[in-house]
Specification:
By secondary structure, the chain is an alpha+beta fold. The chain is built from 12 helices and 9 strands. It has a 4-stranded antiparallel beta sheet with strand order 5-4-7-6, sandwiched between helices. It is extended, with a radius of gyration of 26 Å. It starts with 14 loop residues before the first helix and ends with a helix.
């Protein structure tokens, strides 16, 4: 059975895969010191298309040539080498340089293994339900790849190798999307269900604490020598002393701050917990309205904060959040339906996974290397 990807639901049209292959570059990381609210992570991990074809061939041939087998899922086989390649790509995508922190290696090994096994099970279920790929949509997406990367020498050189597994991946994703949509179609919850959900999850309907801050950011290049940072910390301490002595915050912000808020006198507006970097949050948590912080070193420089106002968290009444409660409950019921399907497929399908190469959970990588695991 072909094993085209780590992901059960990630469509390979996501630019982060093909852009790296076709344009020969790595994705970049945002560097803004003020955190943006992150979107929920998507389910599963991306498998490089360049290695995907090799994994498919190895999975098919594992039993024939005596290659090491990672897992047997019913009558399907996942080759150890296919798993190893999948893990390497997963690590590179999940951890910037492909070097996962030691304490997360064991967890990632299991995530990759579970994703591979789950995909085999779900594809078998999609076939059992006689779901068919949307060939028109697939052809359109492949044409999009052709148009997007037609000037890329790397794409042109590898197109013949990459297109067959790409097409297979898109076909599999098409039926898996249909399967997921069918399984996740749950009825709308009743009023009593919504009320019970609200009572059990009041934290979801509580407005988080918000703080209104002003900031003076003394910009420092992250790669600057320590002497430069020390100088900025000394300057920040001097600014803080002037502010506590009665100096006008807006005037000093216009004069010293390199933050975008300088044009507004340093006013950042209201921020909720999680939007500030941890070192800044720790400092702000200790402030009372009107108080000025000591200078704190952040990614982009040294900051001095003044707390203008603090609004405590407040529980919204059900009447104000009923629709949100309904939507969240329906989402949870949908997630449970999907989890129930996976659990049933796991129960009904004989599965053997070779976990001998897994690190024990909680075992540091260095210790594992020393013992030869």
């Amino acid at each position: 059975m072909p094993l085209p990807s780590l992901s059960m639901m990630d469509v390979p049209s996501r630019r982060s895969v093909l852009a790296v292959i076709a344009e020969g570059r790595r994705p970049t990381r945002p560097t803004a010191w003020l955190r943006r609210v992150a979107q929920p992570p998507l389910v599963g991990l991306l498998l490089s298309l360049a290695w995907l074809a090799m994994g498919v061939a190895e999975a098919r041939a594992a039993d024939k040539d005596g290659a090491a087998v990672f897992a047997r899922v019913g009558d399907a086989v996942i080759a150890q080498q296919a798993y190893d390649q999948a893990f390497a790509v997963a690590a590179r995508n999940k951890f910037y340089h492909g070097k996962p922190p030691e304490h997360e290696v064991a967890r990632l090994q299991r995530e990759v293994g579970d994703s591979l096994v789950n995909e085999v099970l779900l594809l078998k279920e999609a076939r059992r339900r006689k779901l068919q790929p949307d060939h028109a949509a697939i052809a359109k997406e492949i044409a999009g790849y052709e148009a997007r990367y037609k000037t890329s020498p790397m794409w042109m050189a590898n197109k013949a190798t990459m297109l067959p597994p790409l097409k297979k991946k898109l076909e599999d994703n098409s039926v898996l999307d249909q399967l997921q949509a069918n399984v996740r179609q749950v009825p709308d919850p009743g009023e009593r269900q919504v009320e019970a959900y609200y009572e059990q999850h009041k934290d979801k309907f509580t407005e988080p604490e918000r703080v209104r801050l002003s900031v003076i950011m003394l910009k420092v290049d992250p790669s600057s020598p320590q002497a430069k940072w020390n100088g900025a910390l000394d300057e920040g301490a001097a600014v803080a002393r002037r502010l506590r002595g009665g100096a006008d915050f807006a005037s000093l912000a216009h004069l010293h701050s390199g933050d975008a808020s300088a044009d507004k006198g340093g006013d950042m507006g209201y921020l909720h917990r999680g939007m500030l970097p941890e070192p800044a949050q720790v400092v702000v948590d200790k402030l009372t309205p009107g108080a000025v912080s000591d200078p704190v070193a952040l990614l982009e420089g040294v900051a001095v904060f003044r707390l203008e106002d603090r609004k405590l968290g407040q529980l919204n009444p059900l009447s104000a959040v009923r629709q949100r409660a309904t939507d969240l409950l329906k989402r949870d019921l949908s997630d449970q339906a999907w989890a129930d399907l996976l659990a049933r497929l796991r129960r009904e399908t004989p599965t053997r996974v070779d976990e001998s190469r897994y690190l024990p959970l909680g075992t540091p990588l260095a210790a594992a290397k020393a013992t030869g695991k």
